[in-house]
Design goal:
With about 750 residues, the chain is α+β, with helices and mostly antiparallel strands. The chain is about 30% helix and about 30% strand.
């Protein structure tokens, strides 16, 4: 079997990283980086292309062996932050009876994009409205006659004459029938106008929000299409013929054709690549992922192999798009220390990168010479001074100047500082091969200078360790509330949650935070390029929302929506055998949300490393923090084994553990042949069945494990293990909806196929 490669390119604030992943073994085979080309005429697209060419040259990978290529982009986000958008012409439509309300809802004026007040960034819109009489009953469609088409063309040309660079078409009825919007888009194409429609960006009711979403999408169309065309042309010129994918804000990728229609889906996608790596490369099924950079830390939770998504806001206003629930904290590996009253009072939010300082962990040649005794025999080559990183900041941030006796000349180029990275190195928390591993002698010199400044014994190792712990305690305190909130909101086990660190600064924050919270932790391999790896490993994804009259009796709509998203990711190149669809039903808003994910067709073959039964059992025991002899096999299929064990938890009051409040539950872990824990449950049950007996088994498990409360009957979360796939049927309201989706998943299985049904409760 010949090798194929997956290429991922991540556009960061400072550097654009490109990586190549072996499509068979999922191992990193090469990486390259170039400065991110924010100011280039082509925008960040130039850096994407440059990093790709450098990667191919360094690795010698033949273009025809590339089976998958994807990139993240800050182009859309930067366009909104900087106001690099065109004026948008909004054409609203409705029946004459609804015209006054619909005209008001589609008249948007200036749309806030970022900031507020006089310093805010806005997008201008112009408005036209067309009241359209409905076609007679029995007509084949709700499109237009010749006079109406002429009126539409006239209105569009008026908007163009007003300086509109793109059009947003918004019909009040497009959620139920988008034919009129499609007809107007056809007129736009004929006139050479870039355009989008409300029904293209959302199937949810709410005319004003849908129109706003379409208008913002239209505003970035010219810039994004220009960037996409340039990237595609360069990739094709390199000889790569694989489909080009773009990172979405919800953690998946879409093809370039989908991006040309809905570039808004790439907005806020910066942290999505790291989360994708946590799920696809690190194979985290349940845990909290912290991507630690130099200035900030992005924190997200993964539960049952999925990351939580939420509704997005732009300029403080709701839009109809979904983004990963990633929470950004203003502390990271390069955060600066603040001093006052003879003590360390804070860490961050300013970083060494913003202040233009160097880490003591990564000293200049002048510092190295001083430490080697070439310039001075002084115990410490540093002197503490307090600086103001930005004009609006207070003058209490720690900097270390190279003492003149040690060869310093007082220039800003000589300024270093102490950071959480330095503190973590001093305490021995940075692994030897980690990219954050620093020069220990330089770090000790920095802490010696700080100790002396604070009137402490600068050369005493215990004093230096105390200061390092103080820095890391303050940094961890900023992250801990968010980690605890994500554990609670995602219903993760608060005692068994795994913290996983990615990003170049992971070792500076995660080990100490995990120790503080008494949790296990892992640091990602290749942490410095984890986001680029996430882009390379991401699944093709589509998500569609639709509102119905009654969510409880919407089985037919659920099946229809499932088919829509399945067909969409299949059309973008996902292998049907890998496509998994998750459906959620919100009974309060009557919104059905279907999300499909699948792997690219050319990348589904992989070399797996099958573990023994004892090794898989050990993995399950470690996950539950039990001894292997305390874990038993519940059931197994040809690909999965379900293990269970009784887990005891102490209750607490006011953070005090009380043995008398101990509770027990039978926890489950689903482990695949490679020893990856694919599913965790604090309490659950699992049974094996044939295809033909699955429906009866689902009914029995729902009946046995449902609970009753003020809101009525609550069914357990049901999941199916089919072959190598985990089919998640949680998020549904009743047994009928679970069975409807289960039938659709079972339909194509051969007779007698084995199925494991898991109930989480």
């Amino acid at each position: 079997m010949s090798n194929t490669y997956r290429i991922g390119i991540d556009v960061g604030g400072t550097f654009t990283h490109a990586v190549a992943i072996d499509g068979l073994s999922s191992k990193l085979v090469g990486k390259a980086k170039v400065p991110t080309s924010h100011s280039a005429p082509e925008g960040v697209a130039r850096g994407i292309v440059e990093s790709l060419h450098l990667l191919l040259a360094d690795t010698g990978i033949a273009p025809d062996t590339v089976s998958f290529i994807a990139h993240s982009t800050t182009q859309a986000t930067n366009a909104l932050l900087e106001g690099d958008v065109v004026k948008v012409g909004v054409l609203g439509m409705s029946s004459p009876a609804l015209a006054p309300l619909a005209a008001a809802a589609t008249r948007l004026g200036r749309i806030p994009l970022a900031g507020h007040g006089a310093k805010g960034v806005y997008m201008d819109t112009a408005h036209r409205f067309l009241a359209v009489e409905a076609k007679p009953a029995g007509a084949q469609s709700d499109t237009f006659d010749a006079s109406q088409l002429a009126e539409i063309e006239k209105l569009l040309l008026e908007l163009k004459a007003e300086g509109c660079g793109a059009i947003a078409v918004s019909d009040a009825y497009s959620v139920d029938d988008g034919k009129r919007e499609e007809a107007v888009l056809a007129v736009c194409r004929r006139l050479g106008l870039l355009a989008t429609s409300g029904s293209e960006v959302s199937k949810l009711y709410g005319l004003k929000v849908r129109t706003r979403t379409a208008a913002i999408n239209a505003g970035i169309l010219p810039k994004m299409i220009e960037s996409a065309d340039m990237t595609e042309e360069s990739v094709r010129a390199s000889g790569i013929q694989a489909p080009i994918m773009i990172m979405r804000s919800d953690g998946g990728v879409m093809d370039i054709a989908a991006m040309r229609k809905r570039p808004i889906l790439s907005i806020l996608s910066g942290p999505a690549a790291g989360v994708a790596a946590a799920m696809m490369f690190l194979r985290i099924s349940d845990g909290v992922f912290l991507e630690v950079g130099g200035t900030s830390t992005d924190i997200s939770a993964i539960a049952s192999g999925r990351a939580l998504v939420r509704s997005a806001e732009i300029g403080g206003h709701k839009v109809y798009m979904r983004t990963l629930d990633v929470r950004t904290i203003g502390v990271a590996g390069g955060s600066l220390v603040r001093l006052a009253g003879g003590n360390i009072i804070d860490v961050g939010p300013r970083s060494a990168h913003i202040a233009g300082l160097k880490y003591a962990a990564f000293p200049t040649d002048a510092v190295k010479k001083s430490l080697n005794g070439e310039s001075s025999s002084a115990a410490s080559c540093f002197t503490v001074k307090c600086i103001r990183p930005l004009p609006k900041d207070s003058e209490d941030y720690l900097a270390l100047s190279l003492d003149s006796a040690s060869g310093g000349n007082g220039s800003s180029q000589q300024l270093h500082t102490l950071t959480p990275t330095c503190a973590s190195n001093l305490l021995g928390l940075v692994p030897e091969e980690d990219c954050a591993r620093g020069d220990l002698e330089s770090i000790k010199a920095g802490f010696a200078a700080l100790a002396s400044y604070l009137k402490k014994d600068g050369v005493a190792p215990a004093v230096q360790a105390e200061l390092a712990r103080r820095i890391l305690t303050l940094a961890a305190a900023k992250c801990e509330p968010t980690v605890r909130a994500l554990i609670q909101e995602n219903k993760l086990d608060p005692e068994l949650t795994l913290l996983v660190g990615g990003g170049g600064g992971a070792a500076a924050i995660v080990p100490f935070l995990a120790a503080t919270m008494k949790l296990s932790h892992n640091l990602a391999t290749h942490a410095d390029v984890i986001s680029a790896i996430g882009v390379a490993m991401a699944l093709i994804r589509e998500s569609v929302e639709r509102q119905v009259a009654d969510a409880a009796s919407a089985s037919e709509a659920i099946l229809s929506l499932r088919a829509d998203v399945f067909n969409s990711v299949h059309a973008m190149g996902a292998d049907p055998a890998t496509i998994e669809v998750h459906v959620e039903v919100d009974s309060k808003t009557n919104i059905i949300r279907a999300t499909a994910c699948g792997a690219a067709k050319a990348s589904t073959d992989s070399v797996s490393r099958t573990l023994s039964d004892d090794q898989c059992k050990e993995k399950a025991a470690q996950s539950m923090r039990l001894k292997p002899e305390e874990v038993r096999e519940v059931c197994r299929s040809s690909f999965f084994t379900v293990y269970g064990g009784t887990v005891h938890r102490q209750g607490s009051i006011f953070a005090l553990k009380l043995p008398l409040l101990t509770s027990s539950s039978f926890a489950l872990r689903v482990v695949d042949k490679e020893g990856i824990v694919r599913l965790s449950s604090r309490a659950g049950a699992a049974e094996k069945s044939s295809k033909e007996g699955t429906e009866d088994l689902i009914r029995r498990m729902v009946e046995e494990h449902s609970t009753w409360g003020d809101a009525g009957k609550t069914i357990p979360d049901i999941l199916l293990l089919l072959g190598a796939r985990v089919i998640d049927l949680s998020g549904l309201l009743n047994e009928e909806q679970v069975l409807s989706l289960a039938r659709s998943e079972l339909a194509n299985l051969p007779a007698g196929s084995e199925v494991i049904v898991v109930a989480k409760f």
